[in-house]
Structure formats: C-alpha cells, structure tokens
C-alpha cells in the first residue's frame, strides 16, 4: 500500500509556492518500508520560472515533480519564457528522474520555453553524461578531461 502526505500551499501560477510530498510504502504487515520526500519551491519572476528541488527525485516522487512543473507550463495565458530547475538540494535520483527531465524538456520545447538545469550534483551530472542526455537536454555536452577513454568522471 502507498500513502501520500503533502504540505505547502495549493499549487497554482502567480507566486512563490512550496510543495512537499512524502510517499510511504508499507508491506503487508503494515511496516513502513521506505519514506521518500521531495520538496519543490516554485518562484516566478516576470516570465522566468525557477523550481528548486530538494530531496529525492525517483520513481516514488516523479509524479509530484511533473505535476508541479506541469501546473505552470500549462498556464494558457502566460507560459514562462525560461524554466530553471535548480538541483542544488537534490540528494538522490534514479532513472525515473531522467524520464521526468525528458518529459519536462518535451513540454518546454512545445511551449517555446527555454530549459535550464542549474546546480547539478555530480551524481545527476554523471547520469546525464552517461546517457547522452546532457547534450540533448541542455545542448552543452561534457567531454572527458583525461586521455583514459572518458572513465575519469566515474571515480
């Protein structure tokens, strides 16, 4: 069974919002197996939207991330000119995070919104480089700095 607990003001365009989601899974005996938390602060200044991500972005929290960002991208009257995703507070992610980033990138492209990935922690950057998404999502590929065939970013 999965339960959700959220905190923060209701979502909607027009000002700074905060949204936190805790997803708790319980096994058949009612024991809590895991608790995942994602905290999203949304700030809109003029036509720029900044989403600050803290916590875990993975299978359990991907929906909250997509729903929050989608609320602002789908605003028919005034879509943002820039979407800045700030990952300075990201503590962990899995392949679902990559799926979420691809989904958001598709939506920003369709809306004519510029897409930025700010303050990427090394583990996220490594995943983006290994999958080639660094170039696809940001247009700025990272090249290995040593002559060891590119394995230096793995250490």
TrEMBL record:
Residues 135-155 are annotated as: Disordered. SUPFAM superfamilies: SpoIIaa-like (SSF52091). InterPro entries: MlaB-like_STAS (IPR058548), STAS_dom (IPR002645), STAS_dom_sf (IPR036513). It holds the Pfam family STAS_2. Residues 142-155 have a biased composition (Basic and acidic residues). Residues 38-155 form the STAS domain. It comes from the Bacteria. CDD domains: STAS_anti-anti-sigma_factors (cd07043). This is STAS domain-containing protein. It comes from Actinacidiphila acididurans. The lineage of its organism: Bacteria, Bacillati, Actinomycetota, Actinomycetes, Kitasatosporales.
